[in-house]
Amino acid sequence: MMITWGIYIALYLFLGGVAAGCFASAALLDLYGGEKYREPIKWGAYWSWVLMVIGIALLVVDLGRPERASNPILHPNLLSPMGGGTLIINIFMILALIYWLIYTRIPRIILRRDLIVLRLPVIYLGCIFAFMTGAYTGILLSYGSPPLWATSSLGILFLASALATGYAFFILVWAIVDKKTFEELHPSLGKIEAVLGVLELIALLQYTSVIPMKYKVALLGMSNLYSAVFMSVFVLLGILIGEIGLPLFMAKPRKGLLALLCLSAALVLIGGFVLRYVVIYLGQITA
Question: Are 122 and 102 in contact (CB under 8 A)?
Fold first, then answer.
């Protein structure tokens, strides 16, 4: 089968997932500690909408014609996967932008005081749309014909990956912008990442249990390059080492913590991209 969805689509789905997970992480930290964690919350909100914008830009590049990308916005069809997903993503992006403005001290923003009263509604609505965005990146594929895509379990797997990658990205940003508060909580933060890793493994097992045996072997059997990359990079390096092993190892104060955190986040993020890349490419090749 000809490859019609390539690396730009994989990056678009990946960045959408990271943005969703990053927003959810910042929002939950806000509910936990509020103003004390202003800096990581602000930067988490910032990267949530910026990553989404970058992802949409890559989608436009892939389409080749900007007017085609605007069709779902100008002529929405909420019953179609693309139309409904476009609406979800746009609402999420607007909420993330508002959330960032709430925590941004820019004197010329006259409405900032008015925006502050929206903080809790934006947090709760934003989390809902963040979860919908994370799941949508997999649900969109499930409407395709390739058997590797045609299951709702793919949406659950992509959502689990979105939460894990977004959280890894967020705590790395947190460690850079506010080292003091990060060091106060970092033992618990590693345990949360490990829990997300276990949940992602469960989601992967659920997904592979419902796809036909032929495609399960193609994905997990190490019988081709895509399978080898999937198992070694996504499963071994991304989940088992990046999400579970290193975070638990970092649960106690150690020298070189930031370097280990960078390594852990890099492995998780690379693994999350490989998940989408392999599923997209292998799904088309084996269809």
Answer: yes
The per-residue pLDDT for range 96-144, each reduced to its tens digit, is: 999 998 888 654 555 555 667 788 899 999 999 999 999 988 887 877 6
Helix (H, G, I), strand (E, B) or coil at 150: coil
Question: In the chain, how many domains are there?
Answer: 1
Our measurement of the distance from residue 214's CA atom to the centroid of its chain's CA atoms, rounded to an integer in Å, reads 28
Asked if the structure places residue 1 within a domain, the reply is no
Q: 122 near 105, Cβ under 8 Å?
A: no
Residue type, 182: F
Q: Where are the alpha helices (DSSP H) in the chain?
A: 7-33, 38-63, 66-74, 81-102, 112-116, 119-142, 153-177, 179-210, 213-220, 225-229, 246-249, 257-285
In a domain, residue 238? The reply is yes
Return the residue matching tokens 């609505």.
125
pTM reported for the whole predicted model: 0.89
> Per the domain annotation, does 2 fall within a domain?
no
- Least confident window among 35-39, 205-209, 248-252: 248-252
**Segments forming the whole domain that contains residue 223:** 7-285
Structure tokens at 210: 């419902």
* Cα–Cα distance, 237 to 259 (Å, whole number): 16
Contact 52, 96 (CB under 8 A): yes
- Comparing 104 with 95, the larger pLDDT belongs to 95
Question: What is the distance between the alpha carbons of residues 46 and 106, in angstroms, rounded to a whole number?
Answer: 14
Instruction: Pick left, alpha or beta for residue 279 (phi over 0 → left; psi -120 to 50 → alpha; otherwise beta).
Output: alpha
Q: Which amino acid is at 221?
A: G
CA–chain centroid gap for 199, Å, is 14
pLDDT computed for residue 166 by the predictor: 96
CATH of the domain at 179: 1.20.1630.10
Distances (CA, A) of 212 to 142, 151, 158, 279: 14, 11, 19, 14
